Amino acid sequence: MTAQLVEIPGYVAGTWTVDTAHSTVGFAVRHLMISKVRGRFDDFEATFVTGADPLDSHVTATVRMDSVDTGNAQRDAHLRTAEYFGSDEHPTMTFRSTGLRPARGAGRFELAGDLTIKGVTRPVTFDLEIGGFGPDAFDPAGGGARAGFLATGVIDRTEFGVDTNMPIPGGVALGEKVEITLEVEAVLTTPAE
Fold first, then answer.
1. What integer pLDDT is reported at residue 3 of this predicted model?
2. N or C: which end of the chain has fewer CB within 10 A?
């Protein structure tokens, strides 16, 4: 597909960094099979390159696993142990995109890539929605740009070696499927030439 067939209002090609103060790396997992526990990671970074053809764009991201925050310090400490994230031995989770293709709906895409957790790399696909491109109101010199993205997906945590579970009457304590939600605001650092 050519760039002419992918129209994104206000699109800007270049290199972007994530604004962590205005972005969230979140997750949710079933608990006791009756509700969901939600959490986030507070320490992360990402670089986006938007190509002249939007479908040539790519992203790399790194998340510090010890920055997990579920709102419960005891649970967070347990998640950092070898039973779950093993953040002492595997301090980061990484994502490197391998492809981008249009999906149904304006501004919607499928973002494929390799996700690495606990040293295990698996292909994953996120649903990507472009929030938009616009001027950077925080740029004192003016002329800067910002972009917003929402990416959602589901992974099976057991495929990444996060397979500890506690049996309980009628099932298990945690579901295997983990919903991932990335709400990202990025700042243009280098416009395309």
1. 39
2. C
Distances in whole angstroms, Cα of residue 23 to Cα of each of 44, 103, 144: 10, 23, 18
CATH of residue 57's domain is: 2.40.128.110
Q: Which residues contact residue 140 at a Cβ distance below 8 angstroms, ignoring those fewer than 6 apart? A: none
Phi, psi of 65 (to 5 degrees): -70, -25
Q: Which domain holds residue 176?
A: 24-130+149-185
Tokens 């397979």, residue located: 163
Beta pairing class for 68-69 and 108-117:
unpaired
- How many domains are contained in the chain? 1
Give the DSSP H or E segment for 73.
Answer: helix 73-80
Pairing of strands 174-191, 145-156: antiparallel
Q: Is 192 helix (H, G, I), strand (E, B) or coil?
A: coil
Q: What percent of the chain has a predicted confidence (pLDDT) above 90?
A: 75
Cβ neighbours, 10 Å, residue 46 = 20
Stated pTM of the model = 0.90
Give the model confidence (pLDDT) of 118-150 as tens digits.
Answer: 999 999 999 999 999 999 988 878 779 999 999
For residue 172, what are its two tokens? 């298990």
Residue type, position 92, single letter: T
